[in-house]
Specification:
The complex is a heterodimer of chains A (about 110) and B (about 110). In chain A, about 0% of the residues lie in helices and about 50% in strands. In chain A, strands 2, 4, 5, 6, 9, 10 and 11 form a seven-stranded mixed β-sheet that branches. In chain A, a hairpin with a 6-residue loop joins strand 7 and strand 8. The mean pLDDT of chain A is about 90. Chain B is an all-beta fold. Chain B has no helices and twelve strands. The mean pLDDT of chain B is about 90. At the A-B interface, strand 4, strand 5, strand 9 and strand 10 of A face strand 6, strand 10 and strand 11 of B.
Chain lengths: ~110, ~110
């Protein structure tokens, strides 16, 4: 069964460093998403992406964040200058055309900012 | 605003016990409702969904009924197994043109003991 994959599974970085989290969505999906979950808190929506542009973003998704689909398979989340409060589990998700509400999630990347 | 409230965990049950995890939501319009499950070390997996009032979603012995009058979507299973130990997330899809954002509850950790 097709699945969303994410790399790395864990990332430790120093405050102020840039990180790139990578995702490979399911191949025939056209909508892509990033969510995050700070330890002990809710899973929160960050951004959705369709047709090579952001279609929706939350208040969390400020200028420090960016997303990109650099080729036909990868979908990345970049945090330009990490802060301690960026430490969280980051989930990528994708959905089929016309079925945007049914999203399939990857296993997540646990980011720790020191 | 849009929100999802789940019962606080953790929940510990003996094998074959009856499970209920309560979920209520606030939303404008008629959102679709979901239960996701996260097994240890894995990503969020869609467990079941319901897209309109009185719909019942079911999968793997789990059920939840979309109750618009009580704005609830409680998860139930008649006889839990050790393999059901996981974190369960209730979510809704915010209705609205072009919006595919999922809003999640905090998650309820279920532990089933033999």
């Amino acid at each position: 069964e097709p699945e969303v994959t994410q790399t790395p599974s864990h990332q430790v970085t120093q405050m102020g460093q840039e990180v790139i989290l990578r995702c490979v969505p399911i191949s025939n999906h056209l909508y892509f998403y990033w969510y995050r979950q700070i330890l002990g808190q809710k899973v929160e929506f960050l951004v959705s992406f369709y047709n090579n542009e952001i279609s929706e973003k939350s208040e969390i998704f400020d200028d420090q964040f960016s997303v990109e689909r650099p080729d036909g398979s990868n979908f990345t989340l970049k945090i330009r200058s990490t802060k301690l409060e960026d430490s969280a589990m980051y989930f990528c998700a994708s959905s089929e055309p016309g079925k945007g509400e049914t999203q399939y999630f990857g296993p997540g990347t646990r980011l720790l900012v020191l | 605003g849009n929100s999802v409230t789940q019962m606080e965990g953790p929940v510990t049950l003996s094998e074959e016990a009856f499970l209920t995890i309560n979920c209520t939501y606030t939303a404008t319009g008629y959102p679709s409702l979901f239960w996701y499950v996260q097994y240890p070390g894995e990503g969020l997996q869609l467990l079941l969904k319901a897209t309109k009032a009185d719909d019942k979603g079911s999968n793997k012995g789990f059920e939840a009924t979309y109750r618009k009058e009580t704005t609830s979507f409680h998860l139930e299973k008649g006889s839990v197994q050790v393999s059901d130990s996981a974190v369960y997330f209730c979510a809704h899809h915010r209705s609205g043109a072009g919006s595919y954002q999922l809003t999640f509850g905090k998650g309820t950790k279920l532990s089933v003991i033999p």
